[in-house]
Design a protein that fits this description.
CATH superfamily: Homocysteine-binding-like domain
Number of helices: 11
Helix content: 40-55%
CATH class: Alpha Beta
Length: 316
């Protein structure tokens, strides 16, 4: 098994993440994000200011609650295929990934100096659609494709790599190997459908086992994102070895399926207090779920509620 580096979120009671950055920027701030490509905001002052305000708010929530935070770069779409759709060549993507880390690190460093532990994470998204697997790639193909972005994030100073909204194991394996080659720890976050299985139909536990088997258990931990707790909670088996590998959750605010969300004209922000209560129940069953945050439809209100519901009594 990989000798996991000393990541503070692995030993703390709770570390917070931000919410659903793309949906927050689109629906709360009124910013147009074609393809959900938030990284393009790094190229002008107005966009950088919006991103700085966004991450600053979540760092403040963590500090106020007496908790740590992991802040992920706004680079879910900053890989070559998606970047080309926004007019970026390889050099442009290298630069924007590095700048993304710099922006997040600047905020993190300021809070770390005041006593709030914050980890800066380089975020990598799927090569294809975030909801539908489409054309599957092999692990070797995924490693080759994602290694360019991973190297840029590493060069920018990311402390580890998180692959968000993974739809099947092979692409996750490739990203893990790209992170290994760059000398960084890796976290894999799978998404699931309303039945708790991956969009390919594979059970979550099988997907985690496949990545661990192929990589020598290199990932520091696994997460689930872009699904509601009522979708994946019933599929988690407290007696299974693979659930011990789950270290975090970034759930959607909505209980709708991916297909329903994709077709929706309005944002479903759900109920922050209800979502926070579901997080608390998950934590009671699986105390190893330490990294808690949000995905589509969540914003600072959801993260504040999650902090209040899940923070240890001694925090604050």
């Amino acid at each position: 098994m990989y000798d996991t580096p000393a990541l503070p979120q692995l030993t703390a009671d709770v570390f917070l993440t931000d919410g659903g950055i793309e949906t927050s920027l689109i629906f709360d701030d009124g910013i147009d994000l074609p393809d959900f490509a938030a990284f393009t905001l790094l190229d002008d002052d107005r966009g950088r200011d919006a991103l700085s305000r966004y991450f600053q708010r979540y760092a403040e929530i963590a500090a106020s609650a007496g908790l740590g935070a992991v802040l992920e770069t706004p680079t879910w779409r900053a890989s070559s295929d998606w970047g080309a759709r926004q007019g970026y060549d390889a050099a442009g993507l290298d630069g924007v990934n590095r700048r993304a880390v710099s922006l997040v690190r600047e905020i993190a460093d300021r809070f770390v100096r005041s006593g709030t532990p914050i980890v800066t994470i380089g975020c990598v998204g799927p090569r294809g659609d975030g909801y539908q697997p489409g054309s599957l790639v092999t692990a070797a193909e995924a490693e080759h494709y994602h290694s360019h972005q991973v190297r840029s994030l590493a060069a920018g100073g990311a402390e580890l790599i998180t692959a968000i909204t993974m739809l099947y194991p092979d692409e996750a394996i490739g990203i893990v190997e790209a992170a290994r080659s760059a000398g960084l720890a890796a976290v894999i976050s799978f998404t699931v459908e309303t039945d708790g299985a991956l969009p390919t139909g594979q059970p979550l536990g099988e997907a985690i086992a496949a990545v661990d088997d192929a990589t020598g258990s290199y990932p520091a931990y696994y997460m689930v994102n872009c699904a509601h707790p009522t979708h994946f909670g019933p599929a988690l088996d407290a007696g299974a070895d693979w659930t011990a590998r789950l270290g975090g959750v970034r759930a959607n605010a909505s209980k709708m399926s991916h297909a329903e969300l994709d077709a929706a004209d309005e944002l479903d922000a759900g109920n922050p207090e209800e979502l926070a209560g579901e997080y608390r129940e998950l934590r009671e069953r699986f105390p190893n779920l330490r990294v808690l945050g949000g995905c589509c439809g969540t914003n600072h209100l959801h993260i504040e509620a999650i902090a209040a519901a899940c923070a240890p009594a001694t925090a604050g």
